[in-house]
Amino acid sequence: MKRFTPQFRGDAWPDGLTVLHVYLLPDLAVDRELAQLTAACHEAMAPYPITLLTGGLLHTTVEMVADTSADRISAAERQDIVEALHKHVGDLAPFQITAGSPIANKAGALLDLAPDEPLIDLRGHVQDALIEARGPDVIQHDGGRHHMSLGYSWDTANSDPLQSALRRISPSHVPFHVSQVHLLEVGFDERPRDNGKTAWEISWNSVAVIPLNA
């Protein structure tokens, strides 16, 4: 694995930047098996130079509002996004997917999510909402495959032993219930680590919660 550096519009994340995102945030009081799986993964990850995303920091990115930074989006413009999300997402039915297997990758570790279809459908509706509210420049990347981030690496390390440890965790596939999406103002800040290293740490403030099948 390599040191994780967040990106915004193809460049390294500037200090102090915040950007609006649409995330899925798991409710670990509902998905107790997911809570157990992520805890076991974090235990396996603990010896590695990875900032663990525990508890409320677990997330799946649906889409980024990429046309500008959050500070340049007014309260009225944010309300336009919220209303568009309610319009395009509110009629979708809640659904269940599978989280797992856990995977060590170049940026830390994650949980794969499957099947793809309901997540791709949800992303399409979210994109339609953002484009309606902000215009076509709001979408600036293809998003890649959906996953749930478990932690971000802050130094280089051999991830092969970590992948072996993650593979020994059982059960490795658990339910993940999706019943709402979150519009969040997301930021990354560099924090000190051992031997003069620094790590990017994520944080966010909630803007709105949009339930499915409202």
Can you describe what's shown?
- The chain is built from 4 helices and 11 strands, in the order βββαββαββαβαβββ.
- The model has no long low-confidence stretch (mean pLDDT 96).
- A hairpin with a 5-residue loop joins strand 10 (180-192) and strand 11 (198-211).
- Helix 2 packs antiparallel against helix 3 (116-134).
- The protein is 26% helix and 36% strand.
- The chain is of the alpha+beta class.
Features:
four-stranded antiparallel sheet, five-stranded antiparallel sheet, globular, single chain, 214 residues, alpha+beta
Question: SSE string, helix = H, strand = E?
Answer: EEEHEEHEEHEHEEE
Strand order of the largest sheet: 4-8-7-6-9
Helix content: 25-40%
Mean pLDDT: 96
Strands, count: 11
Distance between the termini: 41 Å
What percentage of the residues does DSSP assign to strands (E)? 35-45%
What is the helix tally? 4
How many strands, what sense, and barrel or not for the largest sheet?
Answer: 5 strands, antiparallel
Shape: globular
Q: What structural class results from the helix and strand content?
A: alpha+beta
- Stretches where pLDDT is under 50 for at least 5 consecutive residues are none
In angstroms, what is the radius of gyration? 17 Å
